[in-house]
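Discussion board: Methods & Data

I've been asked by a reviewer to show the raw model output for two of the constructs in my manuscript, not just the figures. I'm not sure how much to include, so I'm pasting the format here to get opinions. Each protein appears as its amino acid sequence followed by a line of discrete structure tokens. Is this the kind of thing reviewers expect to see in a supplement, or should I convert it first? Here is construct A:
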Amino acid sequence: AVHKSTYISSHHRYAGVIVFIMCISSFHIASNTPPGNITASTLSLYDHYPYDNLLYKNKVCPTLQIRKLARSKYDRYTKKHIPRFDHYCGWINQSVGECNYRYFLLFLMVHVCMCIYGVWAVYRVLYGEIVSKDLLNATFFNAVTGVEVKADYWIVFHYLYIRYMPLCSIFILMAVMACVLGIFLGFHLYISSKNMTTNEVSDR
């Protein structure tokens, strides 16, 4: 296995722990901060937005029999009426609303950064293996055909994947998650800049 590399500082073993702690902390905050709960006694606390008479009309929630505030929605998963409802998030196992949306964004940002950092760190380790062993100029032996073949990028990747399968699998997983979470974060930053929620975008 790959234990040390001159292409990445040993300080990153500590940086990795710090990033891990940040991920756990952001998850804990996002999953334990309530989104808000509209009840008959808390209506005035969340009555911030005017009715537009299009998406939001002044009417009664048929489930809880309380006035349905603009931008709020009854969440069937938590059975609560959530102010400025965005969506129910399975990752943090609760609704995202007025009181915890900023922590949900923090959770996404930290995990996108973690994935990008992970991709970079693993890349530096694997790149060190390629350079130190001069793999791009090596000759490989095909065990099936018995033919010697000159190295190319695909052959080198295949060699690294077979030799360092756990590390390469982590690299691929982190790269995919960095793209997926990055797009998801970008979407939320965009709708936030437009003062919209996921629920409102889907209703348009």
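Construct B, same format:
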Amino acid sequence: ETMISASKIFKHEAVLTGTLLFPDGEPQDCCFNLPTITGAIKEYFLKIKGSYFMFLPKTKDYAQVEGGVMADFLIPRKIINQIGYLNRKLFMYFEDIDYCRRLKKAGVPIYFVPEAQFYHHHGATAKKIGKGNINRQIIESAKIYHGETYFWLLSKVLWLSQKWNQVMTPTSR
């Protein structure tokens, strides 16, 4: 009911997402900025949380976001008619990212509705599929989403950030 009321406020011209909760009731990071090399540098080198990886908006009001986990999306029919369905060539996680990018390109906003709460068993599908299969399929989806060249550039930035953080984080002996 909360999402339907919010959709009316936005005149059914926006996609809505709410707060995802772990089974124990703790909130999950469920929103994101679309992935870019700049975002990866900000997140992993400059330590600006939410620049590349998921975050939970810290607000009690509606907040416009670039993307969200589609587990709880409310998408008005006229937006589905405009944007279409999920890309079947993409695998877990990337279908969410791709859809949010398509929404942004079409000028359709996504709003986080904090009071709308949904239980979400984060990682449950991944456990059923198996880690080896998931990694291979996610890499292929990343290549489709980003394109080969951008995928490899982004991969190098992420790899460098891991090495950088290993050097910069003192280990206790």
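Answer (T.O., handling editor elsewhere):
This is acceptable in a supplement if you add a one-line summary per construct. For B, something like: The radius of gyration is 17 Å.
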